[in-house]
Write a structure and sequence with these properties.
Elements lengths: L3 E7 L6 E4 L7 E8 L8 E5 L7 E7 L5 E6 L12 E9 L6 E10 L8 E9 L9 E5 L10 E7 L4 H4 L6 E3 L6 E5 L4 E5 L1
Antiparallel strand pairs: 1-11, 2-10, 3-7, 3-11, 4-10, 5-6, 5-9, 7-8, 8-9, 12-13, 13-14
Amino acid sequence: MVWAVLGKTTLTSAADSITVDSLPVKKHLLVQVKGIGTGGTINCNFTFNNDTGGNYAIRESVNGGSDSVNVQQSNTDNLTGTVTGNVFATVNIINIASKEKIFISDGIESASGAGNAPERKELVGKWDNTSDAITTIKANNSGTGSYNEGSELIVWASDGTDVAETTIVDGSIHEESDTGKHYIWSATNKTWTEVS
């Protein structure tokens, strides 16, 4: 798949939320949030399309510990951990309007200094909306600190196709240099078929 930046917001002053909106609809989303702490904890959670109803269900684990389950939540739950410091999370989302939006998140929260090991959080979840694709993502903070200037939210996207495939002309012939075999490209099926 070919990924491209769909939207990005970088804070110019401290705040408790970072939003990327007006996103064109794409099937695959990869969202990265980098939160620079102002002191106190950053409890980073996402909402999609400004939905804060009880439409999120989560299963999570901190530092490889036992799972906990949270259902009918108002957001994705804390993606990164509970220590005071900076946060980073990468969230992969399948974004099909007619299906529940399922996602996998890997997050970290880290207190400063080499004597402090970072905290790891693994989370899987879903947004129970089967009529809308995600077009707005908001990274909220419910902790005692804030996102400082320079914190950012980046949304990458893909339709699940390779640019190389979409630009090959239908009926093109390819010859393998080592075997001498010939193949013809079908733009409809996006496959190479050996020519006998």
